[in-house]
């Protein structure tokens, strides 16, 4: 997607009335596929009027959980409620919840406009919403083309347009930034902030962690189907703590000495990430051991670092398509 | 339900598959009609049991050859649900209608409506062909209410095929298996059963029940019984599709 066809627009309509209770509530959710527990006793809630990020490594159970929330998959145990009721109990659900999953597609032989017209008809929504959402995602010029000829970014925007068709109170979005160019991602960030600013709610999964940190108010982090942490982004990030970056031509000697002081060291090449030992003490240890340092600096904790430490794994493989590859886990990483 | 039927018809109308299948059905019927008219009255045709088309009843029976269009309506029906699996549009469909069963019902009814259109066109093609043949001879084609009923009967027969295709397609996820399955049943298995067990012919969905509204034969049920059996078959197939769809997670 180039800059000229990037999405533009703002949230339709005004603020919505705040309801009672969370917008999305998941309680004791378990989903078993054969012998595999894709989701295990998962509980979390998504408060109204906020953007909640849903994070986890590949295969953590994010999409499965979202499918259960939306009534597309049945839980083995537990329940999921949207606006206080199971999704299937919502009358005219598209007017309440807008959803975009990676699995919600469009027929390649149908035009984008026809796709939206049919979705509007299915959801008992006014046909006038079609042009409104096409304008909202800047797709009007491409609306009469067959979806089969769309770029991945255009498909994402069509998916967003479909989710917005009912002018919903809640958006449930699975990796909405996939395929969008930087301008599209920036639009998405502004859009979601404006959407929540109008009192509406967003639950969004994404592997674009830097984007998430700028977009979301709260995080729900899961790993291997279980809840890792849930709470405000700042609280989660700060709970992980800053680390110290140490670069040396002889890192092996430093690792042992720092570990002896009770520090935790992760190594990648000649670079070490140290927590649990003050930066001043690390300098003293290096001097005592006679180890040359090329770099010694404090690094503030980021969402990506928090994510990696909380889940003990790499970020989604899909990140490779959009961002530089993550640093591989160090061979002698300490827990 | 009417809104959902309109949705399903719109889904068919907004892609090109129906055009190809309708043209295929028209070509198939035209080919059969022209071939029949070409050999009509010849010794070979007489030996094969084909009578010359002279009376209103002959025209009525000739119109019924258009029911072959039902094969294409069957395929179109089988693709209505399997297309949703193939193109991953089913999640969007069930997000709009999470109770699911009305969607299956609408697909069956919608495919029936489209099948009826296929059938009426399929019934009119032989009628037009034989009318041209009579006109060339300077004669008027013998017409009667039974001819009009035959065109309607072909329409209903093809509507039944379309609806059955949709119901079977709802029970299966694979488009390929659904299409091969319904075609294999209609074109291979049923003729085989009809040949081996002639008494069973009248019970077979497509060769027997589906033919009972247009063809007059002692081997078939009356139109009223045939219509009731059609409804029962479609109902049973739809119920199976609904039960399986409700039990499945949507990918």
Structure write-up:
The complex is a heterodimer of chains A (335) and B (251). Chain A is built from ten helices and 13 strands. With 335 residues, chain A is α/β, with parallel strands linked by helices. In chain A, the strands form three sheets. Chain A has a six-stranded mixed beta sheet, sandwiched between helices. Chain A has a four-stranded antiparallel beta sheet with strand order 11-12-10-13, with helices on one face. The N terminus and C terminus of chain A are likely disordered. Chain B is mainly α and 251 residues long. Classes of the chains: A alpha/beta (335), B mainly alpha (251). At the A-B interface, helix 2 of A face helix 1 and helix 6 of B.
List the helices and strands and how they pair.
The complex is a heterodimer of chains A (335) and B (251).
Chain A: E1 24-33, E2 36-46, E3 51-55, H1 62-69, E4 77-82, E5 97-100, H2 112-122, H3 128-136, H4 152-164, E6 170-174, H5 182-197, E7 201-205, H6 209-215, E8 218-223, E9 226-232, H7 233-240, E10 243-247, H8 251-260, E11 264-268, E12 271-275, H9 279-289, E13 295-299, H10 303-311
Parallel strand pairs in A: 3-7, 3-8, 5-6, 6-7
Antiparallel strand pairs in A: 1-2, 1-4, 8-9, 10-12, 10-13, 11-12
Chain B: H1 2-13, H2 17-39, H3 43-47, H4 56-63, H5 69-86, H6 90-96, H7 101-136, H8 145-171, H9 175-196, H10 223-247
Helix pairs in contact in B: 1-7, 2-5, 2-7, 4-7, 4-8, 5-7, 5-8, 5-9, 7-8, 7-10, 8-10
What's the mean pLDDT score of chain A? 82
Cα-atom Rg of chain A, whole angstroms? Answer: 23 Å
Write down how many β-strands of chain A occur, each being a DSSP E stretch of 2 or more residues.
13
Tell me the β content of chain A.
15-25%
Proportion of residues in helical segments of chain A: 25-40%
* Class based on secondary structure composition and strand pairing of chain A: alpha/beta
């Amino acid at each position: 997607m180039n800059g000229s066809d990037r999405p533009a627009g703002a949230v339709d309509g005004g603020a919505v009335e705040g309801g009672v209770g969370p917008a999305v509530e998941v309680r004791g959710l378990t989903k078993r596929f054969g012998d595999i527990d894709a989701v295990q006793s998962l509980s979390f809630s998504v408060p109204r009027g906020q953007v909640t990020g849903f994070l986890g490594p590949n295969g953590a159970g994010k999409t499965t959980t979202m499918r259960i929330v939306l009534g597309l998959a049945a839980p083995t145990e537990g329940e999921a409620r949207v606006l206080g009721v199971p999704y299937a109990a919502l009358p005219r659900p598209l007017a309440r919840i807008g959803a975009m999953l990676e699995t919600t597609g469009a027929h390649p032989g149908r035009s984008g406009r026809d796709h939206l017209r049919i979705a509007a008809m299915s959801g008992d929504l006014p046909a006038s919403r079609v042009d409104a959402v096409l304008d909202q995602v800047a797709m009007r010029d491409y609306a009469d083309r067959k979806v089969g000829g769309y770029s991945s970014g255009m498909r994402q925007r069509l998916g967003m347009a479909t989710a917005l068709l009912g002018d919903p109170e809640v958006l449930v979005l699975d990796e909405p930034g996939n395929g969008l160019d930087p301008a599209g991602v920036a639009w998405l960030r502004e859009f979601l902030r404006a959407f929540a600013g109008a009192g509406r709610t967003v639950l969004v999964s994404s592997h674009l962690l830097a984007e998430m940190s700028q977009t979301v108010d709260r995080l729900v982090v899961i790993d291997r189907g279980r809840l890792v942490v849930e709470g405000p982004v700042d609280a989660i990030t700060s709970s992980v703590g800053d680390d110290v970056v140490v670069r040396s031509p002889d890192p092996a000697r430093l690792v042992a000495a720092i570990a002896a002081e009770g520090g935790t060291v992760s190594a990648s090449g000649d670079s070490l990430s140290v927590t649990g030992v003050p930066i001043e003490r690390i300098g003293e240890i290096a001097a005592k051991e006679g180890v040359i340092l090329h770099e010694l600096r404090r690094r503030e904790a980021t969402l990506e670092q928090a994510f990696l430490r909380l889940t003990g794994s790499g970020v989604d493989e899909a990140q490779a398509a959009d961002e530089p590859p993550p640093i591989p886990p160090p061979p002698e990483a300490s827990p | 339900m009417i809104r959902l039927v309109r949705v399903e018809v719109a889904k068919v109308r907004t892609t090109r598959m129906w055009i190809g299948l309708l043209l295929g059905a028209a070509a198939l019927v035209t080919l059969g009609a022209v071939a029949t008219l070409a050999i009509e009255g010849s010794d070979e045709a007489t030996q094969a049991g084909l009578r010359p088309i002279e009376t209103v009843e002959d025209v009525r029976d000739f119109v019924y050859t258009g029911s072959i269009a039902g094969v294409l309506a069957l395929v179109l029906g089988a693709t209505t649900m399997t297309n949703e699996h193939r193109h991953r549009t089913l999640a969007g469909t069930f997000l709009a209608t999470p109770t699911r069963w009305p969607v299956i019902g609408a697909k069956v009814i919608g495919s029936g409506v489209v099948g009826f259109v296929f059938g009426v066109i399929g019934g009119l093609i032989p009628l037009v062909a034989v009318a041209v043949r009579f006109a060339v001879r300077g004669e008027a084609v013998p017409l009667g209410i039974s001819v009009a009923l035959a065109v309607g009967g072909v329409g209903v027969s093809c509507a039944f095929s379309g609806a059955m295709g949709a119901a079977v397609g709802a029970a299966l996820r694979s488009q390929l298996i659904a299409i091969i399955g319904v075609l294999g049943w209609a074109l291979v298995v049923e003729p085989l059963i009809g040949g081996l067990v002639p008494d069973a012919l009248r019970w077979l969905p497509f060769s027997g029940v589906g033919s009972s509204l247009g063809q007059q034969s002692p081997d078939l049920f009356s139109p009223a019984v045939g219509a009731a059996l059609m409804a029962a078959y479609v109902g049973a197939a739809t119920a199976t599709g609904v039960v399986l769809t409700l039990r499945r997670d949507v990918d």
